[in-house]
Structure prediction request, 314 residues.
Amino acid sequence: MDNIEISGTSKTPDVKFDASTGMLEISGRSIPENSYQFYEPLLSWLDNYSANPQELTVLTFKLDYFNTSSSMYILGILKKLEKLFLTEHKAEVKWYYDADDEDMLQTGEDLKQIVKLPIDMIEIDQEEEEEISD
Amino acid sequence: MLDVEKYYDFIKSENVILSHRGSLDGDLIDGIIQLVDKRLDKYKTRTRIKKKVINILVECLQNSFNYTRKYQPEKNYEYLIESPFLILMKEEGNFIIFTGNYVAFDKVKLLKEKTKHLCTLSDEELRVYYIKNLNKDELPKEGGAGLGLVDIIRRSKHQVSFDFKEIDENYWLFTSLIKI
Prediction:
């Protein structure tokens, strides 16, 4: 099946879904007015992927900003992965948040309460990040 | 002769970072957010605060957009879509967001009840409300998730005041004053 590779914009995130490795990543900003248009193809892709998944699927979120309408779809994506996980497939989620960003941590914790999935909360040290990007 | 100093002094004294009045669309909201992003960098705003301000602004503007575009009453529609406004300013070390829009008469009662109820909830109750309403089987095909207001209250740590003022027989003005 085809992979998904979408470059981020000022309101939609970078998406890299690789069916051959099971590595899925969403990063950047997710603040579109119409989240359905953006996320519906990702949900459909996950349905297809779930028919023949890799031994391990790793879903990574590295979001800077997201709106509440995106959060429903982020949960939708997690629920697709939860289905895989509950049918004896290995799946894990990495939820990155800036050390300073309590809201992003809170959202990760909220999502963790809803889905039965191993979700790792990973703190990003901003100074370290800035040094790397320099 | 225009009194330049008067207007310049006004802008300085009110510490206005950005203001907007008029109809909203996706591109305009995007432009406002990008501008605020740059302006907050100039103020050397901490990342945590910058993210709060931008996230809250997005919810406010998209709420205004949804209310003024999605719910189209029959009477004086133009009047409604031109009603959104936004002021972002810095005051004594805090950011203040004052925003609002007209709401059609038949939508006001529900919105009043919702804001009143949300403002009575504790952090834990807001968290439960958010999770319950986020976790729905049906995903909306348009508009928001209906969670904008609760998100604003949570992110601002309850430093928000919602207000309603009757304009005429068709509309009420709904405003949010938020301190970050």
